[in-house]
Structures are given as structure tokens and as C-alpha cells.
Amino acid sequence: MSLESEADVPGEATLPGLVPEALRAELIAFRRDLHMHPELSNQEFRTTAAIKERLERAGLAPRVLPSGTGVICDIGTGPRCDIGTGPRRPDATGSGLLALRADIDALPIPDVKSGCAYRSTVPDRAHACGHDVHTTVVLGTGLVLAALHERGLLPRPVRLIFQPAEEVLPGGAEDVVAAGALDGVRRILAVHCDPRVDAGRIGLREGPITSACDRLEIALDGPGGHTARPHLTTDLVTAVARVATDAPALLARRIDTRGGLSLTWGRIESGHAANVIPQHAELSGTVRCLDLDAWRQAPDLVVAAIDEIANLHRAKSEITYVRGVPPVVNEVTSVELLQTAMIARRGPDSVESTEQSLGGEDFSWYLERVPGAMARLGVRSPGERTVRDLHQGDFDVDEHAITVGVELFTAAALIDITD
User: Fold this and answer.
1) How far apart are the C-alpha atoms of 205 and 193, rounded to whole Å?
2) Do 381 and 400 belong together in one domain?
3) pLDDT tens digits for 43-68?
């Protein structure tokens, strides 16, 4: 595959006003509406309906996924993927589709932004990871591309994928793929909000850009007893504490450190009284890996390490290891496509290198099947000193990032690609 020269990429001269002011305002309002009405994984019915209705008003034919949440919509002359209803027709152009993916679910945490007019109206629910922005960017791109297609300016078919359930393991991506969303797709792109990058910029990286992420649930049991006589029973609190502290250290000596395996606990629970040795204890956490090979070894290594420590303290262990997602591994040509598109719209200073994150993302399941890449979309207001992070109840974005994301994806769709 080759990209045309930068001079042949549609820019301001050939496509002035790519995102008109009226559309910018509409997209900000759409994002704020989603932000006020967050929905958890596989419950995104209102969000799905809003996406579908807006695409239909643009003259497009969106299809809701078989689960009832999530939307697929084709623009141009690519294959009509009749999701869940039968065989797919071949691509009329033979060119294959460019897919743009957004995740649409929210998190089960409270929105604690004070004085925010579009704060979540749903208790203990918040778009604290930027999925409302991702959704709005892909929607806005679809509206722009539909208008360009009417003018004969869309060189290839494009598929919009609005995916439910990214926030649960192993993620909704596999269900979307099973429904046929990648049929006919040649390349897939995505963005993820990054509060460390200024709005107006994106971060790019070839190769792994996220880590693998699995979930771990452990139950330890013993006969219980009196704290005056721990030698006559299983000292379960000590056992669970040793698992919590020793398992990560033991794993560090059983796998190549370059694999970046990290076991981190998020919950530990045991006991009800100061003078009673409990009969049950629980631990929950995540296993993350920077390297795909390390991720494949992780389950056996983690289970063996925990069993050894539990046995040493005479505790019975029950381990539930939930496979999550592999790393998102950005394909080189797809990164080049995003870089060329961003520079064409925003100039060479709009792209920066980004490091690999230990966060997990089920966009990786798409990349197991077709080439593609994810960009870090800057959402920090330039000059802002407040340090924000994802998955926190005060998370918010500079909404200029929405226009930037739409321009990025639109320009990528318009670049002439020769395979």
C-alpha cells in the first residue's frame, strides 16, 4: 500500500469549511446530551436511538446490532452489511471499506463535576472515559462524509461502527465482529481521548499502544478461629495479605521483565471482628501485559504463583481468571495514514509521539483480524494546569477536540490509497 503525496491530500484549499460552524455547535450539543444521559455496557438503548435517528436524518441507512444496542452504517458504494440477517453482498467497487469505530458505553461511577451544566443526570453513571466524545466524532465524520459523497468527493466506501460494551471484559468488540461488522473492511481506525495531550493535537505510535488486560477474582478459605490461637487454624488474613504482596513480586521473577506483566489489586475483603480469624477472604484485581507473548503466558503463571502462596499458608484457593483483551497493536501504514491526514488538516506540529499505555482497549480484537490503528485524541485545554485522568468522576474535555477528531477521520477517508 502507498499513500499519495501530501500535496494530493485534500486540505483547506480544496475542502474549505470541512466542519461548518452549525455542525460544530450541533455536535457539541449532541455530546453534552450523551454526557447527561450515560448508559452502562449493553444498556445503551437511548444512545443507540439517538445515533440512528441522526444518521437517518442525513439520508443514511443505519442498522442496529442484533443485541439491540450499537449501530453500523455504510456510506458510499461499499458492501451493504445486513447485520445478522443473511449473506453479505460483494463490494461493488472492489476497494474494501475503511471502518471508523466508536465505543458508546459509560462507567458505573458518579459524576462529581460541580457547576457543570451538562453533568450526568443518572446517579452513579458517568462518561468518565470520553466515549461520548468518540461517539460524537464518528457521528460527525459520518455526516460530513455523507455530504461529500453527495458531491462525488468520497473516494472509498466508509463504515461507521458504534460499538457497545467496551468497558466490560472481554468487551463488546467480539460480538460486533461476530455480527459481520468487519465483512469487506480493509482497514479500521479509532481515537481515544487523552487528557495529557492538548486539544488540537493527536498522539501516535507504531506497534503496541495499549496493554493486554485480564481480570482476576480470588477466594481464600479456611476453618477460622480465635485470634488468640492462629497456630491452630489457617490465619486467613495473613494468607490473603501475603497473596496480595507476594504474588506480584513472585511473578516478576517468572517472566521476562520486558513483557511488562503487572498484577495490581483493586479490592481486598475479609473478616468482621477484631478477635475472630475469618473463614473467607476475597481479592480482585487486574493483570496487564505490554507484550502479546507475555499475555499468552499470564494465566498459567498467575494461577501457579497464587496457589503456591495460598498452600504455604494452608489456605484453600479458588481462582477465577477472566480473559480480557490483547494489546492494541497499531499497524505501520495505518499510523502513516492518520499522521498524513492530521498534518494535512492541522500542520506538522499537530502530531506527537505517545507512549504505550497500561490501559486495556477492546479495539484490539478488530486488529486481530484487519490492519488498523488508534490515535490519542488530545482533550486538554492548552495551558490547563489541572491534571485530569480517565475513569475519574471529574473527567471532562475541551470540546474543540470533537472538531479535530472529525477533521482527522474525514481527511483519512479522503486520502487516495493504492493497495
Assistant:
1) 15
2) yes
3) 999 999 999 999 999 999 999 999 99
Which residues, in sequence order, are bridge partners of residue 319?
218
The residue type of 48 is: T
CB atoms within 10 A of CB 95: 17
Q: Same domain, yes or no, for 46 and 124?
A: yes
Give the mean model confidence (pLDDT) for residues 150-179: 95
Q: Which of 305, 304, 313, 180 is nearest to 237 (CA)?
A: 313
Give me the pLDDT at residue 91, please: 39
227 and 243 housed in the same domain: yes
Q: Phi first, then psi: what are they for 409, rounded to 5°?
A: -65, -40
Residue pair 386/196 in contact (Cβ under 8 Å)? The answer is no
Q: Which of 325, 351, 369 is the last residue of a domain?
A: 325
Beta strand 225-226 pairing with 207-208 = unpaired
Neighbours of 348 (CB within 10 A): 9
Q: Tally the domains of the chain.
A: 2
My answer on whether 54 and 165 are in the same domain is yes
In Å, what is the CA distance from 201 to each residue of 257, 347, 374? 32, 10, 14
Of the candidates 71, 163, 87, 223, the residue with the CA atom closest to the CA atom of residue 374: 163
Q: What is the CATH number of the domain that holds 175?
A: 3.40.630.10
What is d(CA 83, CA 382) in angstroms, rounded to the nearest whole number? 42
Closest CA to 347 of 206, 202, 204, 138: 202
Residues 162 and 77 in one domain: yes
Same domain, 261 and 287: yes
Domain that holds residue 121: 2-210+327-418
Amino acid at 217: E
Residues facing residue 373 across a β-bridge: 189
Strand ranges for 227-293 from DSSP E:
262-270, 276-277, 280-289
| Whole-Å CA distances, 106 to 10, 94, 132, 181, 335 | 35, 37, 8, 22, 27
- What does the longest C-alpha to C-alpha distance in the chain come to? 82
Q: Same domain for 163 and 277?
A: no
Q: pTM surpassing 0.85?
A: yes
In terms of domains, do 61 and 169 share one? yes
